[in-house]
Protein backbone atom coordinates (compact mmCIF):
# COMPACT_ATOMS: atom_id res chain seq x y z
CA UNK A 1 0.00 0.00 0.00
CA UNK A 2 1.27 3.41 -0.91
CA UNK A 3 0.41 6.39 1.26
CA UNK A 4 -0.52 9.26 -1.03
CA UNK A 5 -0.78 12.88 -0.08
CA UNK A 6 -4.43 13.61 -0.59
CA UNK A 7 -5.11 16.65 -2.70
CA UNK A 8 -8.46 18.24 -1.89
CA UNK A 9 -11.04 17.24 -4.57
CA UNK A 10 -13.91 19.37 -5.91
CA UNK A 11 -16.90 19.66 -3.61
CA UNK A 12 -15.03 18.96 -0.38
CA UNK A 13 -14.82 22.63 0.61
CA UNK A 14 -17.72 24.88 -0.42
CA UNK A 15 -17.61 27.24 -3.40
CA UNK A 16 -17.14 30.62 -1.61
CA UNK A 17 -14.26 29.29 0.53
CA UNK A 18 -12.61 27.70 -2.53
CA UNK A 19 -12.91 30.95 -4.49
CA UNK A 20 -11.45 33.06 -1.65
CA UNK A 21 -8.62 30.53 -1.26
CA UNK A 22 -7.92 30.97 -4.97
CA UNK A 23 -7.49 34.73 -4.46
CA UNK A 24 -5.25 34.23 -1.40
CA UNK A 25 -3.11 31.68 -3.28
CA UNK A 26 -2.76 34.12 -6.19
CA UNK A 27 -1.57 36.87 -3.82
CA UNK A 28 0.88 34.46 -2.18
CA UNK A 29 2.26 33.43 -5.56
CA UNK A 30 2.61 37.08 -6.60
CA UNK A 31 4.70 37.73 -3.47
CA UNK A 32 6.85 34.66 -4.21
CA UNK A 33 7.34 35.81 -7.80
CA UNK A 34 8.71 39.16 -6.64
CA UNK A 35 10.98 37.51 -4.09
CA UNK A 36 12.25 34.87 -6.52
CA UNK A 37 13.00 37.48 -9.20
CA UNK A 38 15.04 39.46 -6.71
CA UNK A 39 17.01 36.36 -5.73
CA UNK A 40 17.46 34.64 -9.10
CA UNK A 41 16.86 37.40 -11.65
CA UNK A 42 16.28 36.06 -15.18
CA UNK A 43 17.50 32.65 -13.98
CA UNK A 44 14.18 32.23 -12.13
CA UNK A 45 12.28 30.35 -14.84
CA UNK A 46 14.79 27.62 -15.69
CA UNK A 47 15.91 27.08 -12.09
CA UNK A 48 12.48 27.12 -10.43
CA UNK A 49 11.27 24.97 -13.33
CA UNK A 50 13.92 22.32 -12.79
CA UNK A 51 13.33 22.42 -9.01
CA UNK A 52 9.62 21.81 -9.76
CA UNK A 53 10.66 18.80 -11.83
CA UNK A 54 12.82 17.62 -8.95
CA UNK A 55 9.95 17.94 -6.45
CA UNK A 56 7.64 16.15 -8.89
CA UNK A 57 10.22 13.36 -9.31
CA UNK A 58 10.80 13.15 -5.53
CA UNK A 59 7.07 12.55 -5.05
CA UNK A 60 7.41 9.49 -7.26
CA UNK A 61 10.28 7.99 -5.24
CA UNK A 62 8.95 5.36 -2.86
CA UNK A 63 10.33 5.25 0.63
CA UNK A 64 9.42 1.83 2.02
CA UNK A 65 8.19 1.97 5.61
CA UNK A 66 7.27 -1.53 6.76
CA UNK A 67 5.01 -4.43 5.88
CA UNK A 68 4.51 -3.37 2.30
CA UNK A 69 3.59 0.24 3.04
CA UNK A 70 5.50 3.13 1.58
CA UNK A 71 5.23 6.87 1.50
CA UNK A 72 6.62 9.78 -0.41
CA UNK A 73 7.84 13.27 0.23
CA UNK A 74 5.68 16.40 0.02
CA UNK A 75 8.81 18.43 -0.57
CA UNK A 76 7.77 21.97 0.43
CA UNK A 77 10.28 22.29 3.25
CA UNK A 78 13.00 20.56 1.22
CA UNK A 79 12.55 22.91 -1.74
CA UNK A 80 12.56 25.96 0.54
CA UNK A 81 15.80 24.89 2.25
CA UNK A 82 17.53 24.15 -1.05
CA UNK A 83 16.45 27.13 -3.18
CA UNK A 84 14.92 29.59 -0.73
CA UNK A 85 11.32 30.11 0.37
CA UNK A 86 10.20 32.08 -2.69
CA UNK A 87 11.53 29.85 -5.45
CA UNK A 88 10.73 26.77 -3.35
CA UNK A 89 7.10 27.76 -2.83
CA UNK A 90 6.81 28.64 -6.54
CA UNK A 91 8.18 25.26 -7.58
CA UNK A 92 5.82 23.27 -5.35
CA UNK A 93 2.85 25.47 -6.33
CA UNK A 94 3.53 24.82 -10.01
CA UNK A 95 3.66 21.08 -9.31
CA UNK A 96 0.23 21.31 -7.67
CA UNK A 97 -1.13 23.43 -10.53
CA UNK A 98 0.01 20.86 -13.09
CA UNK A 99 -1.32 17.96 -11.02
CA UNK A 100 -4.73 19.63 -10.82
CA UNK A 101 -4.91 20.91 -14.38
CA UNK A 102 -3.49 17.91 -16.23
CA UNK A 103 -3.50 14.86 -13.98
CA UNK A 104 -6.90 15.41 -12.29
CA UNK A 105 -5.10 15.13 -8.93
CA UNK A 106 -6.95 17.67 -6.78
CA UNK A 107 -10.03 19.52 -8.02
CA UNK A 108 -9.95 22.45 -10.44
CA UNK A 109 -11.97 24.50 -7.97
CA UNK A 110 -9.67 23.44 -5.12
CA UNK A 111 -6.37 24.43 -6.74
CA UNK A 112 -6.17 27.53 -4.53
CA UNK A 113 -6.73 25.47 -1.38
CA UNK A 114 -4.15 22.88 -2.38
CA UNK A 115 -1.57 25.53 -3.29
CA UNK A 116 -2.02 27.21 0.11
CA UNK A 117 -1.73 23.96 2.09
CA UNK A 118 0.98 22.11 0.23
CA UNK A 119 2.87 24.85 -1.59
CA UNK A 120 2.88 28.06 0.42
CA UNK A 121 2.44 26.85 4.01
CA UNK A 122 5.00 24.01 3.86
CA UNK A 123 7.66 26.17 2.19
CA UNK A 124 7.22 29.18 4.50
CA UNK A 125 7.01 27.10 7.70
CA UNK A 126 9.91 24.89 6.59
CA UNK A 127 12.06 27.91 5.81
CA UNK A 128 11.48 29.73 9.09
CA UNK A 129 11.99 26.60 11.20
CA UNK A 130 15.22 25.78 9.34
CA UNK A 131 16.60 29.31 9.70
CA UNK A 132 15.62 29.50 13.39
CA UNK A 133 17.35 26.21 14.22
CA UNK A 134 20.47 27.13 12.24
CA UNK A 135 20.62 30.43 14.11
CA UNK A 136 20.52 28.56 17.43
CA UNK A 137 22.90 25.68 16.80
CA UNK A 138 25.28 27.13 14.26
CA UNK A 139 26.42 25.43 11.11
CA UNK A 140 27.90 21.97 10.67
CA UNK A 141 26.61 18.94 8.80
CA UNK A 142 24.77 17.47 11.84
CA UNK A 143 23.33 20.90 12.65
CA UNK A 144 22.12 21.43 9.07
CA UNK A 145 20.58 17.96 9.04
CA UNK A 146 18.93 18.55 12.42
CA UNK A 147 17.50 21.85 11.22
CA UNK A 148 16.25 20.18 8.03
CA UNK A 149 14.61 17.45 10.07
CA UNK A 150 12.83 20.00 12.25
CA UNK A 151 11.72 21.94 9.17
CA UNK A 152 10.31 18.89 7.41
CA UNK A 153 8.73 17.53 10.57
CA UNK A 154 6.96 20.75 11.59
CA UNK A 155 5.82 21.70 8.08
CA UNK A 156 3.52 18.69 7.64
CA UNK A 157 1.20 18.99 10.71
CA UNK A 158 1.03 22.77 10.15
CA UNK A 159 -0.06 22.09 6.58
CA UNK A 160 -2.69 19.72 8.01
CA UNK A 161 -3.84 22.50 10.34
CA UNK A 162 -4.28 24.80 7.34
CA UNK A 163 -6.57 22.12 5.89
CA UNK A 164 -8.47 21.89 9.19
CA UNK A 165 -8.98 25.67 9.13
CA UNK A 166 -10.40 25.51 5.61
CA UNK A 167 -12.59 22.57 6.64
CA UNK A 168 -13.85 24.53 9.65
CA UNK A 169 -14.73 27.50 7.43
CA UNK A 170 -16.29 25.74 4.47
CA UNK A 171 -16.16 21.97 4.87
CA UNK A 172 -19.04 19.96 3.43
CA UNK A 173 -18.41 16.81 5.47
CA UNK A 174 -20.27 15.84 8.63
CA UNK A 175 -17.23 14.82 10.66
CA UNK A 176 -16.96 17.35 13.52
CA UNK A 177 -14.05 19.79 13.34
CA UNK A 178 -12.65 18.52 16.64
CA UNK A 179 -12.44 14.96 15.33
CA UNK A 180 -10.90 16.14 12.06
CA UNK A 181 -8.29 18.16 13.95
CA UNK A 182 -7.27 15.24 16.16
CA UNK A 183 -7.20 12.75 13.27
CA UNK A 184 -5.41 15.03 10.80
CA UNK A 185 -2.79 16.31 13.23
CA UNK A 186 -2.25 12.82 14.66
CA UNK A 187 -1.72 11.19 11.29
CA UNK A 188 0.38 14.08 10.02
CA UNK A 189 2.68 14.07 13.02
CA UNK A 190 3.55 10.54 11.92
CA UNK A 191 3.87 11.51 8.24
CA UNK A 192 5.88 14.55 9.37
CA UNK A 193 8.38 12.24 11.06
CA UNK A 194 9.03 10.56 7.70
CA UNK A 195 9.10 13.91 5.90
CA UNK A 196 11.62 15.21 8.44
CA UNK A 197 13.92 12.20 8.11
CA UNK A 198 13.89 12.25 4.30
CA UNK A 199 14.36 16.03 4.21
CA UNK A 200 17.32 15.76 6.61
CA UNK A 201 18.98 12.91 4.69
CA UNK A 202 18.52 14.65 1.33
CA UNK A 203 19.75 18.04 2.54
CA UNK A 204 22.65 16.26 4.24
CA UNK A 205 23.61 14.58 0.98
CA UNK A 206 23.51 17.86 -0.94
CA UNK A 207 25.39 19.69 1.83
CA UNK A 208 28.16 17.10 1.73
CA UNK A 209 28.95 17.61 -1.95
CA UNK A 210 27.64 21.05 -2.88
CA UNK A 211 27.05 23.13 0.26
CA UNK A 212 26.75 26.18 -2.00
CA UNK A 213 23.50 24.70 -3.37
CA UNK A 214 21.82 24.74 0.05
CA UNK A 215 20.30 28.22 -0.05
CA UNK A 216 19.29 28.00 3.61
CA UNK A 217 22.95 28.38 4.61
CA UNK A 218 24.07 30.63 1.73
CA UNK A 219 24.93 33.57 3.99
CA UNK A 220 26.74 31.45 6.57
CA UNK A 221 29.24 29.56 4.46
CA UNK A 222 32.89 30.67 4.59
CA UNK A 223 33.64 33.04 1.72
CA UNK A 224 35.72 31.37 -0.97
CA UNK A 225 39.32 32.56 -1.08
CA UNK A 226 40.06 34.37 -4.33
CA UNK A 227 43.64 34.01 -5.53
CA UNK A 228 44.73 36.10 -8.46
CA UNK A 229 48.02 35.65 -10.25
CA UNK A 230 48.80 39.00 -11.75
CA UNK A 231 52.30 40.02 -12.72
CA UNK A 232 51.39 43.65 -12.19
CA UNK A 233 51.86 44.88 -8.64
CA UNK A 234 48.60 46.42 -7.50
CA UNK A 235 48.48 50.04 -6.50
CA UNK A 236 48.89 50.59 -2.82
CA UNK A 237 50.14 47.09 -2.16
CA UNK A 238 53.75 46.96 -1.14
CA UNK A 239 55.44 43.70 -2.03
CA UNK B 1 -4.23 1.08 -27.88
CA UNK B 2 -1.61 3.62 -28.87
CA UNK B 3 -2.68 5.43 -32.01
CA UNK B 4 0.00 6.96 -34.23
CA UNK B 5 -1.25 10.37 -33.13
CA UNK B 6 -0.42 9.81 -29.47
CA UNK B 7 3.29 10.45 -29.77
CA UNK B 8 4.40 11.97 -26.49
CA UNK B 9 6.98 14.70 -26.16
CA UNK B 10 6.53 15.81 -22.62
CA UNK B 11 4.45 14.96 -19.58
CA UNK B 12 1.38 16.84 -20.74
CA UNK B 13 1.42 15.59 -24.32
CA UNK B 14 1.00 11.98 -23.23
CA UNK B 15 -2.40 12.83 -21.82
CA UNK B 16 -3.61 14.46 -25.02
CA UNK B 17 -5.84 12.45 -27.36
CA UNK B 18 -5.49 13.75 -30.88
CA UNK B 19 -8.82 14.28 -32.67
CA UNK B 20 -10.25 16.87 -35.01
CA UNK B 21 -13.39 18.00 -33.23
CA UNK B 22 -14.97 21.31 -32.34
CA UNK B 23 -13.93 20.87 -28.72
CA UNK B 24 -10.30 20.15 -29.63
CA UNK B 25 -10.22 23.23 -31.82
CA UNK B 26 -11.49 25.57 -29.10
CA UNK B 27 -8.73 27.83 -27.76
CA UNK B 28 -7.28 26.60 -24.48
CA UNK B 29 -8.14 29.65 -22.38
CA UNK B 30 -11.79 29.34 -23.41
CA UNK B 31 -11.86 25.72 -22.32
CA UNK B 32 -10.15 26.44 -18.99
CA UNK B 33 -12.62 29.20 -18.15
CA UNK B 34 -15.59 27.06 -19.22
CA UNK B 35 -14.46 24.04 -17.20
CA UNK B 36 -13.66 26.01 -14.04
CA UNK B 37 -16.94 27.94 -14.27
CA UNK B 38 -18.83 24.68 -14.81
CA UNK B 39 -17.24 22.93 -11.85
CA UNK B 40 -18.06 25.91 -9.63
CA UNK B 41 -21.75 25.61 -10.60
CA UNK B 42 -21.52 21.89 -9.77
CA UNK B 43 -20.04 22.38 -6.31
CA UNK B 44 -22.55 25.17 -5.56
CA UNK B 45 -25.49 22.81 -6.23
CA UNK B 46 -27.33 21.47 -3.16
CA UNK B 47 -26.54 17.77 -2.82
CA UNK B 48 -30.14 16.83 -1.98
CA UNK B 49 -31.12 17.47 -5.62
CA UNK B 50 -29.95 14.13 -6.99
CA UNK B 51 -31.40 14.73 -10.46
CA UNK B 52 -29.15 17.76 -11.00
CA UNK B 53 -26.02 15.63 -10.73
CA UNK B 54 -27.48 13.12 -13.19
CA UNK B 55 -27.90 15.97 -15.67
CA UNK B 56 -24.34 17.21 -15.01
CA UNK B 57 -23.00 13.71 -15.66
CA UNK B 58 -24.99 13.48 -18.91
CA UNK B 59 -23.57 16.87 -19.97
CA UNK B 60 -20.00 15.67 -19.44
CA UNK B 61 -20.77 12.43 -21.30
CA UNK B 62 -22.08 14.58 -24.15
CA UNK B 63 -18.85 16.63 -24.14
CA UNK B 64 -16.82 13.39 -24.22
CA UNK B 65 -18.96 12.12 -27.10
CA UNK B 66 -18.56 15.31 -29.15
CA UNK B 67 -14.80 15.29 -28.47
CA UNK B 68 -14.72 11.56 -29.30
CA UNK B 69 -12.82 10.68 -26.12
CA UNK B 70 -13.67 7.02 -25.41
CA UNK B 71 -14.52 5.67 -21.96
CA UNK B 72 -11.39 3.52 -22.18
CA UNK B 73 -9.37 6.74 -21.88
CA UNK B 74 -11.49 8.37 -19.19
CA UNK B 75 -12.19 5.45 -16.83
CA UNK B 76 -8.58 4.34 -16.11
CA UNK B 77 -7.56 7.95 -15.42
CA UNK B 78 -10.38 8.23 -12.89
CA UNK B 79 -8.42 5.91 -10.57
CA UNK B 80 -6.75 9.07 -9.25
CA UNK B 81 -9.87 9.67 -7.16
CA UNK B 82 -9.58 6.42 -5.16
CA UNK B 83 -8.17 8.10 -1.98
CA UNK B 84 -11.11 10.47 -1.63
CA UNK B 85 -13.60 7.75 -2.49
CA UNK B 86 -12.32 5.98 0.62
CA UNK B 87 -12.70 9.20 2.57
CA UNK B 88 -16.27 9.69 1.33
CA UNK B 89 -17.10 6.12 2.38
CA UNK B 90 -16.11 7.00 5.96
CA UNK B 91 -18.56 9.92 6.14
CA UNK B 92 -21.74 7.93 6.96
CA UNK B 93 -20.13 6.69 10.17
CA UNK B 94 -19.88 10.24 11.49
CA UNK B 95 -22.53 12.82 12.22
CA UNK B 96 -25.43 13.64 14.46
CA UNK B 97 -29.17 13.29 14.24
CA UNK B 98 -31.19 10.71 12.38
CA UNK B 99 -29.67 7.32 11.65
CA UNK B 100 -30.55 4.49 9.30
CA UNK B 101 -29.85 0.84 9.74
CA UNK B 102 -28.25 -0.88 6.77
CA UNK B 103 -27.58 -4.59 7.22
CA UNK B 104 -27.20 -4.10 10.96
CA UNK B 105 -24.77 -1.18 10.64
CA UNK B 106 -25.89 2.17 12.01
CA UNK B 107 -25.25 4.99 9.55
CA UNK B 108 -25.96 8.70 9.95
CA UNK B 109 -28.28 10.12 7.33
CA UNK B 110 -26.45 13.45 7.25
CA UNK B 111 -23.17 11.60 6.83
CA UNK B 112 -24.56 9.49 4.01
CA UNK B 113 -25.68 12.64 2.24
CA UNK B 114 -22.32 14.40 2.78
CA UNK B 115 -20.43 11.32 1.57
CA UNK B 116 -22.56 11.19 -1.57
CA UNK B 117 -21.95 14.90 -2.16
CA UNK B 118 -18.17 14.56 -1.87
CA UNK B 119 -18.19 11.48 -4.08
CA UNK B 120 -20.32 12.88 -6.92
CA UNK B 121 -18.83 16.41 -6.95
CA UNK B 122 -15.30 15.05 -6.77
CA UNK B 123 -16.00 12.57 -9.56
CA UNK B 124 -17.51 15.22 -11.85
CA UNK B 125 -14.47 17.40 -11.15
CA UNK B 126 -12.06 14.61 -12.03
CA UNK B 127 -13.88 13.99 -15.33
CA UNK B 128 -13.69 17.73 -16.11
CA UNK B 129 -9.90 17.73 -15.65
CA UNK B 130 -9.53 14.56 -17.71
CA UNK B 131 -11.58 16.02 -20.58
CA UNK B 132 -9.58 19.24 -20.46
CA UNK B 133 -6.22 17.44 -20.61
CA UNK B 134 -7.42 14.98 -23.27
CA UNK B 135 -8.64 17.70 -25.63
CA UNK B 136 -5.91 20.30 -25.09
CA UNK B 137 -2.19 19.81 -25.77
CA UNK B 138 -0.11 20.94 -22.78
CA UNK B 139 1.62 23.58 -24.90
CA UNK B 140 -1.70 25.16 -25.81
CA UNK B 141 -2.80 24.99 -22.20
CA UNK B 142 0.26 27.05 -21.24
CA UNK B 143 -0.51 29.57 -23.96
CA UNK B 144 -4.08 29.69 -22.66
CA UNK B 145 -2.87 30.37 -19.12
CA UNK B 146 -0.75 33.22 -20.47
CA UNK B 147 -3.77 34.71 -22.21
CA UNK B 148 -5.69 34.48 -18.96
CA UNK B 149 -3.06 36.85 -17.54
CA UNK B 150 -1.33 34.18 -15.46
CA UNK B 151 2.13 35.74 -14.90
CA UNK B 152 4.64 34.91 -17.66
CA UNK B 153 7.07 33.56 -15.11
CA UNK B 154 4.58 30.98 -13.80
CA UNK B 155 3.84 29.90 -17.36
CA UNK B 156 7.56 29.55 -18.06
CA UNK B 157 8.22 27.58 -14.87
CA UNK B 158 5.33 25.30 -15.79
CA UNK B 159 6.61 24.80 -19.31
CA UNK B 160 10.06 23.90 -17.99
CA UNK B 161 8.51 21.48 -15.59
CA UNK B 162 6.51 19.72 -18.32
CA UNK B 163 9.42 19.67 -20.73
CA UNK B 164 11.99 18.22 -18.33
CA UNK B 165 9.87 15.80 -16.32
CA UNK B 166 10.86 12.91 -18.56
CA UNK B 167 14.52 13.90 -18.68
CA UNK B 168 14.76 13.99 -14.89
CA UNK B 169 12.48 10.96 -14.56
CA UNK B 170 14.78 8.99 -16.85
CA UNK B 171 17.78 10.16 -14.84
CA UNK B 172 16.06 8.92 -11.70
CA UNK B 173 15.43 5.55 -13.32
CA UNK B 174 19.05 5.21 -14.39
CA UNK B 175 20.10 5.87 -10.80
CA UNK B 176 17.68 3.21 -9.60
CA UNK B 177 19.05 0.70 -12.12
CA UNK B 178 22.59 1.57 -11.00
CA UNK B 179 21.65 1.02 -7.35
CA UNK B 180 19.91 -2.25 -8.02
CA UNK B 181 22.65 -3.61 -10.24
CA UNK B 182 24.96 -3.17 -7.25
CA UNK B 183 22.68 -5.41 -5.22
CA UNK B 184 20.65 -2.71 -3.44
CA UNK B 185 17.15 -3.71 -2.49
CA UNK B 186 14.93 -1.23 -0.67
CA UNK B 187 13.39 -3.04 2.28
CA UNK B 188 12.55 -0.59 5.05
CA UNK B 189 13.59 2.56 6.84
CA UNK B 190 17.15 1.23 6.92
CA UNK B 191 17.47 1.85 3.19
CA UNK B 192 16.36 5.51 3.38
CA UNK B 193 19.89 6.95 3.61
CA UNK B 194 20.78 5.31 0.29
CA UNK B 195 17.62 6.52 -1.45
CA UNK B 196 18.05 9.99 0.05
CA UNK B 197 21.63 10.18 -1.22
CA UNK B 198 20.30 9.45 -4.69
CA UNK B 199 17.68 12.14 -4.15
CA UNK B 200 20.41 14.60 -3.17
CA UNK B 201 22.36 13.72 -6.30
CA UNK B 202 19.18 14.10 -8.32
CA UNK B 203 18.70 17.61 -6.95
CA UNK B 204 22.26 18.62 -7.80
CA UNK B 205 21.89 17.23 -11.32
CA UNK B 206 18.51 18.93 -11.78
CA UNK B 207 19.82 22.26 -10.53
CA UNK B 208 22.93 22.09 -12.68
CA UNK B 209 20.77 21.15 -15.65
CA UNK B 210 18.73 24.27 -14.90
CA UNK B 211 21.92 26.35 -15.02
CA UNK B 212 22.98 24.78 -18.34
CA UNK B 213 19.52 25.30 -19.80
CA UNK B 214 19.67 28.93 -18.72
CA UNK B 215 23.05 29.46 -20.37
CA UNK B 216 21.87 27.74 -23.54
CA UNK B 217 18.83 30.02 -23.58
CA UNK B 218 20.94 33.14 -23.04
CA UNK B 219 23.14 32.16 -25.97
CA UNK B 220 20.00 31.97 -28.10
CA UNK B 221 18.92 35.46 -27.14
CA UNK B 222 16.64 34.83 -24.17
CA UNK B 223 15.66 38.05 -22.40
CA UNK B 224 13.10 36.71 -19.94
CA UNK B 225 10.19 36.24 -22.31
CA UNK B 226 9.37 33.27 -24.49
CA UNK B 227 8.11 33.93 -28.00
CA UNK B 228 4.59 32.84 -28.91
CA UNK B 229 5.24 30.19 -31.54
CA UNK B 230 1.73 29.28 -32.60
CA UNK B 231 -0.32 32.46 -32.55
CA UNK B 232 -4.05 32.05 -32.82
CA UNK B 233 -7.06 34.27 -32.45
CA UNK B 234 -10.02 33.62 -30.24
CA UNK B 235 -13.39 34.49 -31.76
CA UNK B 236 -16.61 35.31 -29.97
CA UNK B 237 -18.04 32.14 -31.55
CA UNK B 238 -15.45 30.14 -29.56
CA UNK B 239 -16.59 31.78 -26.34
CA UNK B 240 -20.27 31.25 -27.16
CA UNK B 241 -19.71 27.56 -27.93
CA UNK B 242 -17.67 26.90 -24.80
CA UNK B 243 -19.98 28.83 -22.49
CA UNK B 244 -22.89 26.51 -23.35
CA UNK B 245 -21.57 24.10 -20.71
CA UNK B 246 -21.29 26.47 -17.72
CA UNK B 247 -24.45 28.35 -18.77
CA UNK B 248 -26.43 25.12 -18.75
CA UNK B 249 -24.76 24.23 -15.46
CA UNK B 250 -25.80 27.57 -13.95
CA UNK B 251 -29.38 27.02 -15.11
CA UNK B 252 -29.46 23.62 -13.43
CA UNK B 253 -27.86 24.93 -10.24
CA UNK B 254 -30.39 27.77 -10.02
CA UNK B 255 -33.28 25.37 -10.66
CA UNK B 256 -31.94 23.06 -7.98
CA UNK B 257 -31.77 25.91 -5.48
CA UNK B 258 -35.28 27.02 -6.44
CA UNK B 259 -36.70 23.53 -5.83
CA UNK B 260 -34.69 23.24 -2.62
CA UNK B 261 -36.27 26.38 -1.13
Work out the helicity level of chain B.
55-70%
Strand order of the largest sheet of chain B: 1-2
Shape of chain B: flat
What is the tally of beta strands of chain B?
2
Beta-strand residue percentage of chain A: under 5%
Terminal residue distance of chain B: 49 Å
Oligomer: heterodimer
CATH architecture of chain A: Orthogonal Bundle
Our count of domains of chain B comes out at 2
**What's the story with the biggest beta sheet of chain B?**
2 strands, antiparallel
Structure explained in plain terms:
Helix content of chain A is 65%, strand content 4%. Chain A is built from seven helices and three strands, in the order βααββααααα. A three-stranded mixed sheet of chain A has the order 1-3-2, with no helix packed on it. In chain A, helix 1 crosses helix 4 and helix 1 packs across helix 5. The radius of gyration of chain A is 20 Å and the shape is globular. Chain B has 261 residues and is mostly helical. Chain B folds into two domains: 164 residues, no CATH class; 59 residues. Chain B is 66% helix and 3% strand. Chain B contains ten helices and two strands; from the N terminus they run αααααββααααα. In chain B, strands 1-2 form a two-stranded antiparallel sheet. In chain B, a hairpin with a 2-residue loop joins strand 1 and strand 2. Chain B is flat. The N terminus of chain B is likely disordered. At the A-B interface, helix 1, helix 2, strand 2, helix 4 and helix 7 of A face helix 2, helix 5, helix 6, helix 8 and helix 9 of B.
Search tags:
heterodimer; A: 239 residues; mainly alpha; Arp2/3 complex 21 kDa subunit ARPC3; 3-stranded mixed sheet; 7 helices; 3 strands; B: 261 residues; 2 domains; two-stranded antiparallel ribbon; 10 helices; 3% strand; flat; disordered N terminus
Entry summary:
By secondary structure, chain A is mainly alpha-helical. Chain A has one domain: Arp2/3 complex 21 kDa subunit ARPC3.
